[in-house]
Amino acid sequence: MKIKKNDSVIVIAGNDKGKKGKVLKILPDKGRAIVEGVNFVKRHTKPRKQGQKAGILEKEAAINLTNLMAICTKCDKGVRVGTRILADGKRARVCKSCGEMLDKE
Ligand SMILES: [Zn+2]
User: Fold this and answer.
1) Distance 30 CA to ligand 1 centre (A)
2) Per the confidence metrics, is the pTM higher than 0.85?
């Protein structure tokens, strides 16, 4: 998986193109992710209990992983992610532009 929970990502396609946010959740089965502040959808809510107000709830909807790119803090932009095998055999995700390590797996 190139993109993981808590990654900073940028949207590269769709209505929210150019928006940045943090990955809140990955939905691997669907190939989608929920990104903080991205792809808001409005849901009209009806009062279910007495005293509860009807209203519009805004919530992030899942966005296709192919529309997202991980942000490299060094490049300060969305980058392609590669994998490097470290000396100790662990795999690390790296920025393909500058080689900066994004994390250790
Ligand atoms: Zn980079």
Assistant:
1) 28
2) no
Distance 101 CA to ligand 1 centre (A): 8
CB atoms within 10 A of CB 30: 10
Chain centre distance of CA 68: 6
On the CB side of 74, CA atoms within 13 Å amount to 9
Could you report the per-residue pLDDT of 9-22, keeping only the tens digit for each? Answer: 999 999 999 999 99
Write out pLDDT tens, residues 34-83. 999 999 888 888 877 777 777 888 889 999 999 999 999 999 999 999 99
How far is the centre of ligand 1, averaged over its atoms, from the C-alpha of 53 (Å)?
47
Which domains does the chain carry?
A: 8-76 (2.30.30.30)
**Which residues, 6 or more positions from 28, have their beta carbon under 8 angstroms from its beta carbon?**
1
How far is ligand 1, taken at its centre, from the CA of residue 94, in Å?
8
